[in-house]
Specification:
alpha/beta, Aspartate Aminotransferase, domain 2, Aspartate Aminotransferase, domain 1, 7-stranded mixed β-sheet, 3-stranded antiparallel β-sheet, 39% helix, globular, binds pyridoxal-5'-phosphate
Length: 361
């Protein structure tokens, strides 16, 4: 048997990491797969990828490659903090809700301080309140702020919003970390240069997501503040994040960065999300929960509607309260499939939804 019998090739909107590998990343992997090359990052692909980031960000940043975003975020935050420090983040931040305590683990106990967000965004005031609540030695000393771009609920920070948080951080002596698992989608929406929404706005370190942008694996940790990158390679090694065949983590970055594929793919995913949101305008009984500014659409459904949609074979996450559904688009999302999803949502909401429909397992 050369493939699993149950293989279902129909696209789903459960996550942007349901998608496969984009042609540019795949081609670069193939190119890198010729002959031998030095291990552990001493190869031409790794230096070419780091150079591609320096040219993209128009600065002399330090770049490291990890296998996934949890490691990238956790190790980046660990490099900003001592064990008695704290990191201010949104209460729906991936680092707070979806990394199984890894940021605390890898920083040997630095504490995350979660504060309420508005449409997924932290505000300068929110940061200030959390950072100045206490200044005694019984409280974990605030040392960093983490923001997510695009946010977990598919909104983006404008360069001005990042800069305002950056200014607050500098005033309060805090480092600024950006979780950019969907950084490409944010750039595609904003239309600004990557520099404008990162180091020029006060970001010290960015975790730039490759996986959700069309790679098999891999995130880049980009230090704009080079002093903070000191000994970072040791953290990576200790955490099991130093790839011995590093060229295969690095090559896909060369592939997507060299001809702007990273941005084209993100634009496509964003357009599909917009298409879905537009197609759902006027459907009664559902409500869009957040503005669609990246590649995700969040819809508040009655539970019976969710069940009916699942019964039609759709997969999606419902992690925001009771009845909220998340639909993510990716670099390869088919507009016909998006239209099909919208039509099915319309159909289940227009028929009297039977309350006893159960999702298949
Ligand atoms: C997907 C994602 C990550 C990375 O998750 P991994 O599964 O560890 O690669 C980080 N932050 C956000 C906001 C994400 O959506």
């Amino acid at each position: 048997m050369d493939q699993p019998e149950t293989l279902d090739l129909a696209q789903q909107f459960g996550s942007d990491n349901y998608a496969g590998i984009c042609p540019e990343a795949w081609a670069a992997m193939t190119q890198a797969n010729q002959g031998h090359a030095p291990a552990y990052g001493d190869d031409p692909w790794t230096s070419a990828a780091a150079d591609a980031f320096r040219s993209l960000f128009e600065c002399d940043c330090e770049v490291f490659f990890t296998f996934n975003g949890t490691a990238a975020n956790s190790l980046a935050l660990a490099s900003l903090c001592q064990s008695f420090h704290s990191v201010i983040c949104s209460d729906i931040a991936h680092i707070e809700t979806d990394e199984c305590g890894a940021p605390e683990f890898f920083s040997n106990g630095a504490k995350l301080i979660a504060v309420p967000s508005q449409d997924g965004r932290l505000t300068p005031d929110g940061v200030r309140v959390a950072a100045t609540r206490r200044d005694d030695l019984h409280y974990p000393k605030p040392k960093a702020v983490s923001i997510t771009q695009a946010t977990e609920v598919g909104t983006v920070y404008s360069p001005a919003q990042v800069a305002a948080i950056g200014a607050t951080c500098r005033e309060l002596g805090l480092h600024l970390h950006m979780d950019g698992a969907r950084f490409a989608n944010a750039c595609a929406t904003l239309g600004c240069t990557p520099a404008e929404v990162t180091w020029k706005a006060g970001v010290d370190v960015l975790c730039f997501g490759g996986t959700k942008n069309g790679m098999a694996i891999g995130e880049a940790v980009v230090f704009f503040n080079r002093a903070l990158a000191q000994d970072f390679e040791y953290r990576c090694k200790q955490a099991g994040q130093l790839a011995s065949k590093m060229r295969f983590l690095a090559a896909p970055w060369v592939g997507v960065l060299r001809n702007g594929a990273w941005l084209r793919h993100a634009r496509h995913a964003n357009r599909c999300a917009q298409q879905l949101a537009n197609a759902l305008q006027g459907v009664t009984g559902i409500r869009q929960l957040f503005p669609v500014q990246a590649n995700g659409v969040f819809i508040d459904f009655p539970p019976a509607g969710l069940n009916a949609l699942r019964a039609r074979g759709w997969r999606f996450y419902t992690f925001i309260g009771e009845g909220g559904a998340r639909f993510m688009c990716a670099w390869d999302t088919q507009p016909e499939r998006t239209a099909q999803l919208a039509a099915d949502i319309r159909a289940v909401m227009s028929t009297a939804v039977p309350a006893d429909v159960q999702p298949p397992d």
